[in-house]
Amino acid sequence: MLKAPLFFILFHVLVCGAVAQDTISVMYYNLLKFPDEIPGRITDLRKIIGYTQPDIFVVNELTDESGAVAILNEALNVFGADHYSAAEYVDGTDTDNMLFYNNEKLGLIDQVQIPTGLRDISGYKLYYKHPELGPSSDTIFLNVFGIHLKAGSGSFDQRKDEALVLKYYLNDMDIPENIIAGGDFNFYSGNESGCQAMLDGADVYLFDPIDQIGNWSNNSFYADIHTQSTRTSSFGTGAGGGMDDRFDLIFLSEDALYNEHGLTFLEGSYQALGQDGDRFNESIVIPFNPSVPDSISEALYYMSDHLPLSLSLVTDYTVSVNNAPIETKLKLYYNTVENAIILNQTIPSGSLQIYNATGSLFGTYSVDNNQRIRLNERLAPGIYFCAGRLCKEQIGFSFLVPD
Length: 403
Known about the structure:
By secondary structure, this protein is of the alpha+beta class. The protein has two domains: 6-15 and 323-401, Immunoglobulin-like (Sandwich), CATH 2.60.40; 20-319, 4-Layer Sandwich (Deoxyribonuclease I, Chain A), CATH 3.60.10. The chain is 16% helix and 38% strand. The chain is built from six helices and 19 strands. Strands 2, 3, 4, 5, 12, 13 and 14 form a seven-stranded mixed β-sheet that branches. Strands 1, 15, 16, 17, 18 and 19 form a six-stranded antiparallel β-sheet that branches. The protein has a six-stranded mixed β-sheet with strand order 6-7-8-9-11-10. A hairpin with a 2-residue loop joins strand 18 and strand 19. The longest helix has 17 residues, at 156-172. The protein is globular and about 65 Å long.
């Protein structure tokens, strides 16, 4: 148990003074008719992004380009960060998909819209950036697809047809490598024809990374992987009923599972944010959810009726930074007596910016061969965000100073 005067402890992995494999974090999120459904949800999304910090962020249910612009400028590139880029927004039929990515790790080569009977499937080809590699040399390529299939318990055949559109497209690719196909599939069961088409249809096989194909709907056995609904009571057009469906999934091609083209699925990384397994037919906030801070569970509740779903991939390439003898696990806490952020190790150099929940800069602080960052003023109760660089690594996190 934490005791005063320690208001929070934060963790961030640094690779200073070490050589480590790099990881690429991928997150999919159905944003529930964003930004039209309920105004002001960008604040909730900003909290979720600050907490998760994905390298690849794919969304469903954008209603217009203004939503994509808001996500980039008001949820991703905020609090001093400027390393996110966006794909080109395409206004298709019904709602749209969109991809955002960490441009320090990844570059976008191409994108394509694949029409189906309802919504387009969006395809994006990315490459992994390395100091010695580029898009025209020997690098790692990722083929990322954003998918939102037809909803409804009576639309099994239409979902199958839409899934097969993607699978036949994969058949025609010159090199169908490192395929990441995710989004809101609206499958009630892994045994319905659309899901089986995603797995085994056509010549390019896809896999559920956690191998949990089953009858998910309203089945407590799968409570720890349900992604919808975050609410027991509906509001707006969002669904209620609590957590009882696995509509959101991420499929991977076999090479991404077994490192055939430079990427490997990181075991244990597949998760729906805020899903602790105790949500069956309950909301994301009640009963108490110990898996995320209260501010995040509340943001998930108000942002969408779906949970964001993520996984991580490990690259073949290693990343090395300066030779300072820094531990790999960084710990920080706020000491109210000293009015300072205390680090568990000496950092040779760096800087941090602290912002309040409205985005106003509280202060910029340098780190120069010390373990203490003394603040100019005391932090009032509320949510704060930090961003900056320590030991040449970009870091960012959110924290709560309670009443």
